[in-house]
Amino acid sequence: MKTRIQELRKQHKLSQEELALAVGVTRQTITSLEVEKYTASLVLAYKIAKYFDLTIEDVFDFSELEEI
């Protein structure tokens, strides 16, 4: 699943570590999300979206799931 996490993080001048601490995960989790090796849980997706004051759909691309 594609995300805008890296783009949003850079726009807000945040390191992976800073974002990870803000949403309660490890830096490695943020890295895995950014390179699409990990799919966020609904709770984590909500926390990330809320942190950036966006909706989940603004951060995560669900278009691949619509084909199912």
Automatic annotation (TrEMBL):
Cross-referenced SUPFAM superfamilies: lambda repressor-like DNA-binding domains (SSF47413)
DNA-binding listed as a keyword: yes
Domain HTH cro/C1-type: 5-59
Keyword Transmembrane helix: no
InterPro entries in alphabetical order: Cro/C1-type_HTH (IPR001387), Lambda_DNA-bd_dom_sf (IPR010982)
Keywords: DNA-binding
Gene3D superfamilies cross-referenced by the UniProt entry: lambda repressor-like DNA-binding domains
Gene Ontology molecular function, alphabetical: DNA binding
Name by which UniProt lists this protein: Transcriptional regulator
